[in-house]
Write a structure and sequence with these properties.
single chain, 173 residues, alpha/beta, Rossmann fold, six-stranded parallel β-sheet, 5 helices
Length: 173
């Protein structure tokens, strides 16, 4: 299986890269701008990947990448697994999050909505969404909460790859 991972050099992406042997990473660390979704999609189509792990966070770029790649692959037996966030289910009154957290929540909510809308369409392309709770990464290192290990999320990715009937997973510790 030929696998591409966005944001592969740290956190969840690195854990996925370590678990999924033979995968190829796309992130700033090796010269890729994941916000340039047109270039990334052209690369993924050209390289004929079987699976894309849509992991790298950059505002609404995950949603845009999901939509564009789905449009390119809708009639192909491909897999797009997106890494969302359990934060979409937190009430805005939750005191553990600051005003800076809410744009992140809005971006991840848009990803979930895009996934759910596309999942309802007939397609040969299989979609999946993993919504982890706080995960031990740079993004949430300042939060004083129990955190998942990035490897737990990577194992959920593997579980979804091995089980086509699983469409969406929520993880939290």
């Amino acid at each position: 299986m030929n696998i591409a991972i966005t944001g592969h050099s740290k956190g969840i992406g690195l854990a996925c890269s370590n678990l999924l042997t033979g995968s190829t990473g796309y992130s700033r660390s090796n010269g890729w701008n994941v916000a340039d979704t047109d270039t990334i999609v052209r690369e993924f189509v050209h390289k004929d990947y079987d699976v894309v792990i849509n992991n790298a966070y950059s505002d609404y770029c995950q949603s845009t990448l999901l939509q564009k790649l789905f449009d390119a692959w809708s009639n192909k037996n491909k897999i797009i697994l997106s890494i969302g966030s359990y934060v979409i289910d937190y009430p805005r009154s939750d005191n553990s999050f600051t005003a800076e957290t809410w744009p992140y929540k809005d971006h991840k909510l848009d990803l979930a909505k895009t996934f759910r809308r596309l999942s309802q369409q007939y397609s040969s392309c299989r979609l999946g969404l993993i919504n982890p709770g706080p995960t031990d990464t740079q993004l949430v290192k300042h939060l004083n909460v129990k955190k998942l290990k990035p490897e737990a999320v990577a194992h959920a990715v593997k579980l979804m790859l091995d089980n086509p009937h699983i469409k969406e997973i929520t993880l939290y510790d």
